[in-house]
Amino acid sequence: MARAAPWLIDRSDLLAALDRAAARKVTVISAPAGSGKTSLLRAWADRAGQRRRLAVLQVQRGEEDAQQFWLALLDAVRHACATAGPSAGTPDFNAAAMVDRVLSELAGAGGEVTLVIDDLHELNAPEALGQLSRLLADLPPRVHAVLTTRHDLRLRLHQLRLAGELAEIRAADLRFSERETRLLLDASGIALSAAGAALLHQRTEGWVAGLRLAAISLAGHPDPERFVAEFSGSDRTVAEYLIAEMLERQPAVVQDLLLRTSLLDRVNGELADVLTGRPGSERILLQLADAHAFVESLDLSRAWFRYHHLFGDLLRLELRRTLPEEVPALHRRAAGWFLRQGRVVEAIRHTQAAGDWPQAARLLAGHSFSLTLDGQAETMQALVRAFPAGADHPELALVRAMGDLAQGRLDEAAAHLAVAEAHAETAPADRQRRLQVAIASLKLSLARRRGHLAGVVEQVGLLASPVTGESDEDIALGSDLRAVALMNLGIAETWSGLGDAERHLREGAVLAREIGRPYLEVSCLVQLGFASKILPFATIERRCREAITLAERHGWGTEPVVAPALIALAGTMVWTGEFDEAQRWLQRTARARQADTGPDITLLVHIAGGMLQAGRGRHHEALQEFSTAEQLGSQRADSHALATRVTGWMVATRARLGMPAEARALLAAVDDERAGSGEIRNARAVICLAEGDPAGALDALRPVLDGTAPVIGDVTVLEAQLLAGLAHRELGDRRAANQAAERALALAEADRLVLPFAMTGARELLEALPRHETAHAALLTDILDVLRSVPGGSSAPAGTEPLLEAEELSPGELRVLRYLPTNLSRPEIAGELSVSVSTVSTHVRSIYLKLGVRDRTSAVQRARELRLLAAGRAR
């Protein structure tokens, strides 16, 4: 906030009232234009700033976008508290999360902070006012807020008022007294009689702006007494009269600058030079600001200025009266300057004000992706609403489709995309390709939201190639558009199982980082972790955690954008038997799902929830989750990749609950193509086991085990081996049961898979496996630890035999042993196991002693000889 004008009179009573108000949570200064709100606030800030930190936000004129308001407020708080952190806009704005971020910054400030929001009446976003009410109610201790507004706003402050935590200063409090009027005249060097001063106060009714205007007009007037006697009327009439007087007393060049630049919300010297057509504007603006002629500097460097609202309004009236034919050309010049500076919204607004609607439509459509990425979706829709009703601007169909997609109006989005597609066919060649790429990208997004990705392959060639242009602006726009296209393409390919999702998402992430689009980078990295289905779980976990860390750095840790990584990480934890950790990640995914994340994530949450419940032995809850997932999957136009597995699990869960007849009824409804899959054959085997028919189970499993049945992945084969082991055990063939269990452990070793053992109820099968017959003793110990922790799993292991030629290792030692073949250091092993380094060192010394070796290499070799580790394999 710029410093208060040095000539302002001392309004000590009001300043003291503000000081007293600072003991409460919130102060509201509500009064019409020209009442002196900002001047008072600046005078108080000069004093208060010596004792407390000030976070000052001046709301932009006509602010339509809640996200822009909150980002600016967050930046103001961070500036005041000298804290750093990125604050980029996002297409998916979570206002509640943003309020939490601001509150967290204020709570961690350590000391007194005053939050100042000036011109709050300019905020035209009702949802932002609702969230601001929450912020004000929840302000941390030692934080005070001051709001200024021209009129009362719909802020829910009644609880603060009842609690005595709200102070209010109104127009009547701000009016000058007759004594203050005399002080102002004296400070301005104006000689006026006591009667004249009293008359001036009476005519202006103590209205601050009127008195300031009068002081400017009276300075140097040949007959001040007559001047005061001649004007009267309402505030507006007085202002118009006094401003006209002030303008007439200015040199022609100053009058011309004020009028031509009055159509701007704020102005600097370079922009003023463009509108006046001559140099030297910055010097004039500085002189006007120093003279306090209703021109205010907005920054410490005094590069940007604005006119007092009332002054600006009346200047614009005078501009339209005296230079009406030049107004459109002035707006076009301003639009060109703003466009060259990359200030697209201002450029579009001035193009609209110039009446050049076709050009405004082209600008808005051309920059729509960039504006969306900047978090200005609401501003875009406000710009669309500013176009004349009924005007035919097909370029706007693209913008309307983006708005419909954001609001979940999928049918309307499809209709607008059809209009945009028809327009693109007749668009000029230099714009046609960009339009086609933008439309294709939105069609992919729409298809994903609808669960209908059958046509994704058709879009690959168009979206994967660069969008070229000749100018820097074209290149920037093309980069934004291509990054969005690669992201949408990669997401669609991930869910459809088509194309090269890995490559496109990686290219999208690299491009997003290069062009400074963190939201796109996070989106691509999140999906990259989610798309890593064929990679080791360790790689999936690492990618997901990297994406989540980057998202948290920007405050998006519970935003919809990060939901795929959250659910992928939860799923990984379920597969590896870390059920409590998985539960925490699922809960965090649920928070991210409070916004619309689309049907895909909801489907996966229920699948992961079913897996978690099944792993914990809670089959009723698992069945409910799998059934919900099955129902959601059936609503998709395309069958999702996990549909057959979900059906198999749902059938198997019914059988495990003692409902084999219902399970067979579900099985009978499966189409012939899926009925021969490994997943459905496994489910049939579970039914046979539940019915006491182990031979039938082996018959069902045979095509899975010999590789002739199609499977989604090796997990299906692992599950089949365990079911076969259970069947052999029922038939009394212990050797075959042990062999099946060993093959299952071999398949589970690389990723440390635990869930299949829990879901199939394989604990007794594993406990019967002699340690000397397995090459996976450490993994076996880990799995049994998990299985014994689930309900009904507390009995001691049976059938175990001592190790050959070595003293038996403890479970902790076996866990450490599994990491010795790797390149991990002892601190890194400690980090992996969540234990201290000294614990790892103790276990290593004990391992060396029991195995009769002196070093790590020898320990690994000896462990392999004893079949404690698989030969040549490390996790």
In summary, what is this structure?
The protein is mainly alpha-helical and 875 residues long. The protein is 63% helix and 4% strand. It contains 47 helices and 8 strands.
Structure description:
With 875 residues, this protein is mainly α. Helix content is 63%, strand content 4%. The protein is built from 47 helices and 8 strands. The protein has a 5-stranded parallel β-sheet with strand order 2-3-4-1-5. Strands 6-8-7 form a 3-stranded antiparallel β-sheet. The protein starts with 11 loop residues before the first helix and ends in a 10-residue tail after the last helix. The model is unreliable at 1-7, 468-476 and 792-806 (pLDDT under 50).
Which descriptors would you attach to this protein?
five-stranded parallel β-sheet; three-stranded antiparallel β-sheet; disordered N terminus; 47 helices; 63% helix; mainly alpha; single chain; 875 residues
**What sort of overall outline do the alpha carbons produce when their principal axes are compared?**
elongated
Q: Into which percentage range does the β-strand content fall? A: under 5%
Number of helices: 47
Low-confidence stretches: 1-7, 468-476, 792-806
Strand order of the largest sheet: 2-3-4-1-5
Q: Give me the Rg, rounded.
A: 36 Å
Largest sheet: 5 strands, parallel
Mean pLDDT comes to 84
Helix content: 55-70%
Secondary structure category:
mainly alpha
Number of distinct beta strands? 8
> What is the straight-line distance between the termini?
58 Å
